[in-house]
Amino acid sequence: MKTKRALIWKSLRTGLLTVLVLLIFAYGFQITKVNLTELRSEQRQESLTRVIRTLARPDLFAFPQEELAATAPVFLPCPGTQALAALPAPDTSGPYMLITPACADPKGSVQIEGFNFYPNAAGPLRFVPGSDSANPVTLGNDVVRTDAQGHFLAAFVLPDRPSEDVQYVRAIIRRNVGLPQLSETAYSTWDKIVETVFLALLATVIGTALAIPLSFMAARNLMVSVRSPLASISLSLLGWPAGIVIGFLVARWVGALGQPLASSLLANFAAVVVAPLGAWQAMRWALPPEELTPPGKGTRLARSLVMALAALLALFALFQLAALAMSLGSRLEDILTSFGFLGGFLFQLGEIVRLITPVLAALAAGGLLSSKLAQLGQRFSERASAPWVKAFNLLVATAAGATVMGLLGLMIDLLYQVGVPSFTLWIPMAVGAVGGLVLAAMVKPKDTLPNGLIIYSITRTILNGTRSIEALVMAIVFVIAVGIGPFAGVLALGLHTIVSLAKLYSEQVESILPGPLEAVEATGANRLQTIIYAVVPQIVPPYISYTMYRWDINVRMSTIIGFVGGGGIGFLLQQNINLLNYRAAAAQMLAIAVVVAAMDYISSYLRQRVV
Amino acid sequence: MLQVINLTKIYEGGTKALDRVTFEVPDGQFLAVIGLSGSGKSTLLRCINRLVEPTEGQILWNGEDITAATPEEMLRIRRRFGMVFQHFNLVHRSSVLTNVLAGRLGYVNPAWSLLNRFPRQDVEKAMQQLERVGIADKADQRADELSGGQQQRVGIARALMQDPEMILADEPVASLDPVLAHSIMKHLEEINQQDGVTVLCSLHFLDIVHRYADRVIALNEGQLVFEGLPTEIDDQKFKDIYGREAERVG
Questions:
Q1: N or C: less crowded end of chain A, CB within 10 Å?
Q2: Which of left, alpha, beta for A557 (phi over 0: left; psi -120 to 50: alpha)?
Q3: Average pLDDT over chain A, rounded to whole?
Q4: What are the φ/ψ torsions at residue A410 (nearest 5 degrees)?
């Protein structure tokens, strides 16, 4: 009995489910406006066939052509017999046309007969408005075809263009000569597809370089064990902005210092050679390869000073290198003529180095100061007695909270231009200070906080948030920032690559074998050494394979990023579609297909070889 | 001398892996740690170099309190304890030489090691260690191209690079066949006897314990249930350590 009821219940459920699915699909049809009668309409079918036929003939090759043109006079409406009689007789030595009658009402029909054209050729037959027979503007869409004697006869409907003066009808009969050659469209498509491929390449390289460090921060297994006492975290938070400011100022100072040298090519070159050598020697001295006993205070101080000197020298060298590359590049651009782009490239590289160096210096100084302060905080928390640590915690946590919130407030002010300092600066600072104070009051002085997990969560949130914005949308923003062109596309695709690769990479880091990690840690290696020796070798193959995959995606994306002005072939494609120039559009689609397929093939081949 | 005093480890979730374990290891001793799987042997070894944070208790090495060391001090302490693992824990895609050199990471300057630059004497030393365990010819091969026994030798060479005062061996022969097991144990024995390195080695097979160990401690559910000479393990002691249903096979 029971089984029967269960069976009925089951079939009832299946029935209900079926009805539900049907309902969903019916609604879906309604929403997406599925309309098959439209498909059957003759007009639609006709235009569809036309478009498909044009698409099937991509505009890649064209014959060089020669042409014969002739014009014949016509009046509309008919003037007096005098004017008609004054018309000259056609010159019958070359191609000529006769129009009968030689006048008609606007929209009237005439017979046009042509002689002495190329045999078995075709071309447009069009009305030339105005009284100038050489007027390039023509009206109409007629095409005539000559017979074996180079003669044609066509009925022609005149347009509604009445005039007192004589007007003309022009026929141009063209024929192909010689072998087909690449068309204009083929050339412009080639230009743009090269741009597309390089756009994808640059975006992938930039994205990969920046995604790697981010991926470590977004890997739970690496970050979960990072814990620090509150004093250390607060001091490192304070160290970042202070270090960034200091680094930026120092970089500017060093940059200005090297300016005079950059004006002379020789001095510049000497500086590029000498400064890195000096930095290298200083580093060699300050970083002994191996030490069994920890050095004394004096030695450590001397080493830190020499390291600072080395850093300044390195900074100086970078600026000099940038200046050298720029001046050499601009000279080479003139000398190399057709290979001038190499000089231009050198110049751009120099410019990039010059722009990036202060940023790098600022970040490095921020990181360095923050980590040194964090170390200090850690030592203090370990060695000082609990009440002292507590007092110190209260102090630095308050300061750190105020700083972080104040900076956030400044950022909000930058975005929304509130312009009320009490609202965007003082209140957030007060909130941050109170927050820090409360946190410091709650935390036991010697406890450690999971700052690794906090960094992990923040990184993940930013990655996920940014990843959900399509590269196409980012491109719109970057087009506004840097103007229409491939550079905007590079930036947009690069940013999207960073965030999505960082996510994919971090998942690979999370799935590495823990054993080697444990073994390297057991040798007394620090965190960074553990990452380099136990994590990196394990993630190389998946990193390569994801990078290839992304490069694939970037090539595909870069073909459409031009739709919003991001450069690449998309711009041409969209233009040609909008101009209804389907043959050219077909050429570009073909190019995209070829490139994407080739990329697919190459990347799978490389993946097999490398991984 | 290693002194372990009232060592307790409770994992998150409440599993008590070690329960007030107290014992001492004099310098130069070969101490075997036996017990069933899950009895706390691995946790004990990992507590000693603090790969696992002990919950309570003290570990003293020559009088220095390891449990109280700061993270920075811990790096200097760890480099004096070589560790050998059941699954070798080599970095598969790195060369054998790089794997051995990794044992030196606690000594070298971090900045240079990040660029994969090791002092020449370290590279020479790594080759010597590989020679010592008999696989110098494999130095340039990838670690995962080696057989299990060879991989464990690389693991031992890596531990030797640390100039260890003590070797913690976590079931070093459990995934090897008996012949290889003895050859690996002989290497450990040689290091113990020639270099005077203290060895703490967790083991499964009693015949190996009899053959190599100076002294034995036994764990059962985190508690120390036996401490003495290998020959003292009679049938009664055996049942205490491994449970009533256990039968001696080796």
A1: N
A2: alpha
A3: 87
A4: -60, -40
Interface with chain B: mutation pick from A284, A304, A523, A545, highest number of B CBs within 10 Å: A523
Contacts of residue B162 in chain A, CB cutoff 8 Å?
523-524
Chain A residues within an 8 Å CB radius of B85: 515, 518-519
Report the distance separating Cα B92 and Cα A75, nearest Å: 91
User: What's the token pair of residue A432?
Assistant: 């941050």
Q: pLDDT by residue (tens digit) across A512-571?
A: 999 999 999 999 998 889 999 999 999 988 888 888 888 888 888 888 888 888 888 888
CB-based contact (8 Å) between A524 and chain B? yes
Angstrom CA distances, B127 to A119, A394, B85, B123, stand at 88, 53, 21, 6
Token pair listed for A275 = 């400064």
Residue A110's DSSP bridge partners are A156
3-state secondary structure A475-511: HHHHHHHHCCCHHHHHHHHHHHHHHHHHHHHHHHHHC
pTM of the shown model: 0.75
Angle at B169 between CA B168 and CA B174, to 5 degrees: 165
Q: A506 with A218: CB under 8 angstroms?
A: yes
DSSP class of residue A88?
A: P
Q: Are strands A181-182 and A61-62 parallel, antiparallel or unpaired?
A: antiparallel
Q: Could you read off the pLDDT of B199-250 as tens digits, one per residue?
A: 999 998 888 999 999 999 999 989 999 999 988 888 888 888 887 777 766 5
Rounded Cα gap, residues A525 and A515, in angstroms:
15
Our CA-based measurement puts residue B121 at a distance from the nearest CA of chain A, in whole angstroms, of 10
- For residue A413, the model assigns a pLDDT of 85
Q: Are strands B215-220 and B30-34 parallel, antiparallel or unpaired?
A: parallel
Half-sphere exposure of B73 (CA within 13 A, CB side): 11
CA atoms of A573 and B38, how far apart (whole Å): 66
Q: What is the DSSP string of A49-65?
A: HHHHHHHTS-S-EE--E
Which SS3 state, helix, strand or coil, does residue B79 take? coil
Please, which pLDDT band fits residue B97 given cuts at 50, 70 and 90? very high
Q: Which residues of A touch B113 (CB under 8 A)?
A: 529, 532-533
Is the peptide bond between A101 and the residue preceding it cis, with omega within 30 degrees of 0? Answer: yes
Nearest one of B202, B168, B174 to B40, comparing CA atoms: B202
- Compare all CA atoms of chain A with the CA of B155 and give the residue at the minimum distance: A519
Q: How far is CA A230 from CA A233, A237, A372, A382, A431, in A?
A: 5, 11, 15, 12, 18
Strand pairing report for A96-100 and A448-449: unpaired
Rg for chain B (alpha carbons), in Å? Answer: 18
Q: Do B70 and A522 touch (CB under 8 A)?
A: no
- CATH top-level class of B30-38+69-212+224-242: alpha beta
Q: How far is CA B220 from CA B33, B237, B239, in A?
A: 11, 12, 11
Distances (CA, A) of A469 to A359, A464, A475, A499, A513: 26, 9, 10, 10, 33
The answer to whether the beta carbons of residues A392 and A380 sit under 8 Å apart is yes
Domain boundaries, given as residue ranges, for chain B: 30-38+69-212+224-242
CB contact under 8 A, A537 and B158: no
User: Between β-strands A167-176 and A65-74, what pairing exists: parallel, antiparallel or unpaired?
Assistant: antiparallel
| Nearest by Cα to B170 from B89, B248, B231 | B89
Residue A2: predicted pLDDT? 63
What is residue A45's predicted lDDT score, i.e. its pLDDT?
86
Residue B5 DSSP SS3: strand
Q: Are A538 and A520 in contact (CB under 8 A)?
A: no
Chains A–B, number of C-beta pairs less than 8 Å apart: 109
**A297-352 tens-digit pLDDT:** 888 888 889 988 999 999 999 999 988 888 888 888 888 777 777 888 888 888 88
What band does B84 get if pLDDT is binned at 50, 70 and 90? very high
User: How is residue A203 written in tokens?
Assistant: 């975006």
